[in-house]
Amino acid sequence: MTKRLLRSLALALSLSLALGVAYARMTDQQVIEYVKKATAEGKSQQTIGKELLARGVTEAQLRRIKENQERDNNKTTDNQVDRTVNRNSAANKNLRSNDKYDKYDKYDKYDNNQNARNIDNSTNTTSSRRVVDGSEVIIDEQRLDYIYTDNDVTIGQQGTMNNDFLNGHKVYGSNLFKSRTLTFEPNENMATPEDYRLGPGDEIIIDVWGNNEAQIRQSISPEGRIIVDQIGPIYLNGLTVREANDRIKSIFAQKYADVADSGSDISLSLGQLRTIQIDVMGEVSLPGTYRISPFSTLFHALYNAGGPTEAGTLRSIEIMRNGRRIATSDIYDYLFNGKRSNDIRLQEGDVIVVPAYDRLVTIEGEVKRPMIYELKKGETVADLLGYAGGMKSSAFGDRVSIDRTTNGAKTVAVVEAADFETSRLDDGDIVTIGKADNRYDNRVEIGGAVVHPGVYAIGIDVNTVKDLVNIAGNPTEDAFLSRAQLFRENPDRSTRVVGVDLAGILKGTVPDIELNKNDVLIIASVEELEPKEDVVIEGEITRPGDYPYASGMTLEDLIVQAGGLKEGASTVKVDISRRLTNDKSMSIGEEISKNFTLTIKDGLVVDGDGGFELQPSDIVDIRRSPGYIEQRRVSVSGEVPFEGLYSLNKRTERLSDIVKRAGGVSDFAYLRGAHLTRKLTPEEKIARDETLKLALQSQGNDSIATNKLLTGDTYSVGIELDKALANPGGPEDLVLMEGDVLVIPELINTVKISGDVLFPNTVIYAPGEKYKYYVEQAGGWGNTANKSRAFVVYMNGRVARAKHAVIEPGCQIIVPSKDKKEGMSLAQWLAIGTSAASLGTMAASIYSIIRK
User: Fold this and answer.
1) Strand pairing of 351-354 and 276-282?
2) What is the average pLDDT across 245-255?
3) How far, rounded to the nearest angstrom, does the alpha carbon of residue 675 sit from its chain's CA centroid?
4) What is the pLDDT of residue 841?
C-alpha cells in the first residue's frame, strides 16, 4: 500500500510539474477551510496531501497550523479564564480557606460548552465571553493579563462601534483601564481608615496587657459577631475600628475588673481582611460579580472589569449602594486634573453601572492633542479645546469649522472665537482647527555679498533698497554692484526678477527702489562671476591630480604642491598644454590648444621662461625618463643548482640564458616536462576581455563556450626546453618576459588517466604504447565516453589529440563525456511521495482538531 501511495503521489506531482501547474501560496485560514471541505467530501488523507502539496503548502506550514489549533483548543478546554478578581494574596487566601466560599470553587474552570471571550489574532475579530446571569462569577485578574494590553485594542462584550467619524482617531482615556502598569490596586500596608466598617470575614485581634495578659484572634461570622469565652457573643458588624474598640473595652471591663481603672489595657486591631463582593454592570468589557479587597476603589474595580467598552462612558459612571445612587464619577477629573475625589472606596454590595456615552466629538488640525473626546451635555467648543491641550502656535485661532450630521444630512458650521464659550457640541461633531497663513506682512531678505545677510522687517528704518543694504552692514569688498537682483512677489504669488543698479543707488545717481513685503535682494560677488578652474598635473609626480588655480601660480609652485617629482621623472621634457579662449572669435580655427615644452632642474625651469606662470585649465605632463628602467624579474625552480629570482640583463634574454645563469640543469632533470607560466600583459588582458564580451553577446549554436575562456591573470606557455638548450637562440629558445616562472621537474615515470573511464588511475609509463593501452589500464571507456575527443596534456604545457599523440612520461590522458539530459532519480521520486504522504497525515490531524 505504501509503495502504491508513493508511486501515485510521485506521478501526480510530476504531472503537475510537467504541465506547469502553479498555485498561489495558501494562507493558514485557507488551508483549514480546504481541509474541512475536502474531508466533508470524503477525500482520503493521501488525496488531501497530494492536493495540498500541489497548491504550494509545505510540511512546515501544516505543522505550524496543527500546533496553533492544538494550543487554541487547549486554551478553550483546560485554560478557561478563572474569573476571580483579587490582587491581595492574603485576602485571596482567606477567601479560599473559608468553607462558606466553597460554592465559588465550581467557577475555577469554565465548562467547555460555555462561550468564552477571546481575540483571534489571525482575523482580528472579537467574540463575546459569556456572563453568568443570576450567579456570582469570580474573576482571577492574573489569568486575564492577556486581555489587558498596552496597545490600542479596545475590548468589549457589548459590541464595537463603527462610527465613520472616528477615522482612526483614539478616544481619549479609552485605554486607561487596560494598562499593565496602572492597576489602581489598593495599598494593603496602609493604616486602616477610620471610616472602615467591619464585616463578616474580617479577622479581629484583641490584645490585653497590664495586670492581665491575653490575646484573642477571631474572624467575624456571617452573623456579624465574635464569641469570647466567659463573655459570649459580641456584635461588631457595621462598626468602625474605633467604635469596635470602645465596645470591646466596655464589655471586657465586666471580665477584667482593673480595665476600668487602667490596671489593664485593651486594644483591637485587624488581622486578615475579608473580601467584599461588588457588581460591575453596563458597558464594560467583562461585566459580572467580583470579590475584591475591602480597600479597593471604583477605579480598581473598573480595571478588573476591563474598563468601559467603546460604547461606554468615562464621564458619568454611577455607584449604587443599597438601591440608591451615592455618586457619579467623571474620569476626566482624574485624567486632566489628577483628582481622585470621585474614586470612592467601595463597600459590600455596591453596584457600578457604566452607561453608554452621551456624545463623542472629534477635534483635528492644529491642536496639541487631536483625538476623540467624550463631552457632557452642554459642553462647548472652549471645553473641547481645553481637553485637546489648546491650539498650536501655527493655528488660525479666529474661527473653527464644525462638520455635523443633522437628520441624516451633513452640514458645516463656522464658529468665531468670540462664540467658543457658548457654542455647544453634539454627538459625532468633527471640529477642525486650520493653519495660519505662513506669509509675512513686513518681511524682506538680503543675501550674498553683504556683511550681515539675513531677514529684516520693513519699518521706520527700512523702506528702500538703500536702507536695506545699509542696515545689513553695506556690501563686502568683492561685491558686484553693477547689477543686483531683486526677487519680487506678484499679486498671484508668482515671482519676478528686477535688475538693480546698486552702485548707482548707493552713489545717488539713480532713483532708490521702495521695498515690498517678501522682497529678496541678492548681491553677487566678483569671485562668483569669475570662472573657477583648476590646473592639472599628471605623470611622474608624487601626487598627481587637480589643484586650485591661483593668480600668479608658476610651474615650480605646482610641482611643490604636488609633492615633487618621482625618481623616474624626466627633467629635460615637461609639457604644458593650454586651453584656447577667444570670446570675440567668429569662425572655427585649426588650432585646438597651445603647447609648451620646458626643461627643469631641482624643480626650477632652466630651459624656457623662468617662473613660467600657469593659466586656469593648464595641463602639465611630467614624462618618464627613457633612461629609467625598473628591474624585470623571473623565477627559476626545480632541477637547477641555484633556484630563485633573477633580474633580466637585456630585453632579448632567453630560456637558455636564464638556465645557464642558474647553473645549468642537473643530471636528474626531466627537460621534456619543463613548463613555463606567464602573466598577462595589459594588452593581453584587453584582448581577453574583448573576447569574453564577444562570447557573452554571441547567439546560437556557434557561440563560444564562456567557461572555456581564460579568465585568470596567468597562462601556461608550451615550451620544449630540451630543444632550446640544444639550439640556443633557435626558434624553441623562448624570449623571457617579466614575471615568467620556469619549473624544471625531475623525471616522472607515470601517466595519469582521468575523465570518463571506469577507474581513473595513474599507471607506469610504458615506452612505445598508444593512448588506448593506458585507457585499458584504467578499466576501459566509460558508458558515456566521447572517444573521438580524448586528448593528452603534456607536462610542458602542450596539448594534443590523443589519436595522434605520442605518450610521454608525466603526461595526462583526459577522456571527456558526451552531453546528457538529466532526469529525476529514484531517490527524488521517493522523497516527493514521502512529503505528500506526510502532508496528508497532518491535514487529517488538523481536521480532527478543528471539528472539536
Assistant:
1) parallel
2) 81
3) 57
4) 62
Angle formed by the axes of helices 28-40 and 826-850, nearest 10°? 80
Q: Is 199 exposed, middle or buried, given 0-12, 13-18 or 19+ CB atoms closer than 10 A?
A: buried
Q: With left for phi above 0 and alpha for psi between -120 and 50, is residue 288 left, alpha or beta?
A: left
- In whole angstroms, give the CA distance from residue 95 to residue 89: 10
Q: What is 781-834 written as a DSSP string?
A: B-TTB-GGG-EEE-TTS-EEEGGGPPP-TT-EEEE-B--------HHHHHHHHH
- CB of 247 closer than 8 Å to CB of 301: no
- The cell numbers describing 498, all together, are 528686477
Q: Is 0.90 topped by the overall pTM?
A: no
Which residues are CB-neighbours of 118 under 8 A, at least 6 positions away? 75, 76, 127, 129
In angstroms, the CA 246 to CA 188 distance is 24
In tens, the pLDDT along 564-578 reads 889 889 888 899 999
Query: Could you tell me if 468 and 462 are in contact, meaning their C-beta atoms sit under 8 angstroms apart?
Result: yes
Alpha-carbon 818 to chain mean position: 51
The single residue listed with the C-alpha cell 585568470 is 712
**Three-state secondary-structure class, residue 546:** strand
Question: What does the pLDDT read at residue 846?
Answer: 63
pLDDT at 96 over 90: no
Q: Which residues of 249-278 are buried (b: 16+ CB within 10 A; e: fewer)?
A: beebeeebeebeeeebebebebebbbbbeb
Start-to-end Cα distance in the chain: 30
Tell me how crowded residue 180 is: count the other CB atoms within 10 A of its CB: 9
Residue 517, class by beta-carbon neighbours within 10 Å (0-12 exposed, 13-18 middle, 19+ buried)? middle
Cell of residue 79, nine digits: 485554560
Helices 59-77 and 826-850, packing angle to 10 deg: 20
Where would I find the beta strands (DSSP E) of 27-76?
none
Q: Which of 842, 839, 837, 840 is nearest to 67 (CA)?
A: 842
Closest CA to 384 of 398, 370, 395: 370
CA distances from 607 to 574, 598, 739 (A): 10, 6, 40
3-class DSSP assignment, residue 750: strand
How far is Cα 291 from Cα 276, in angstroms, rounded to an integer? 5
Largest CA distance in the chain: 144
3-state secondary structure of 131: coil
AA letter at 233: P
Q: CA dist 92 to 138, 140, 180, 275, 276, Å? A: 11, 10, 20, 8, 11
- 383: which residues sit within 8 A by CB, 6+ positions away? 375
Q: C-alpha distances in angstroms, 751 versus 15, 236, 676, 720, 771?
A: 49, 114, 20, 19, 10
Alpha-carbon span 198 to 641, nearest angstrom: 114
DSSP annotation of 587? S
Instruction: Please give the distance of CA 572 from its chain centroid, rounded to a whole number.
Output: 62
- Strand 288-292 to 225-228 pairing: unpaired
Q: In Å, how far are 57, 298, 313, 683, 827 from 351, measured between CA atoms? A: 54, 10, 16, 97, 72
Name the phi and psi angles at 575, rounded to 5.
-100, 140
Q: Of 189 and 85, which is predicted with more confidence?
A: 189
Positive/negative CA dihedral, 141, 145, 146, 149: positive
pLDDT, residue 488, reads: 93
β 633-638/619-624 pair status? unpaired
Residue 606 pLDDT class (50, 70, 90 cuts):
low
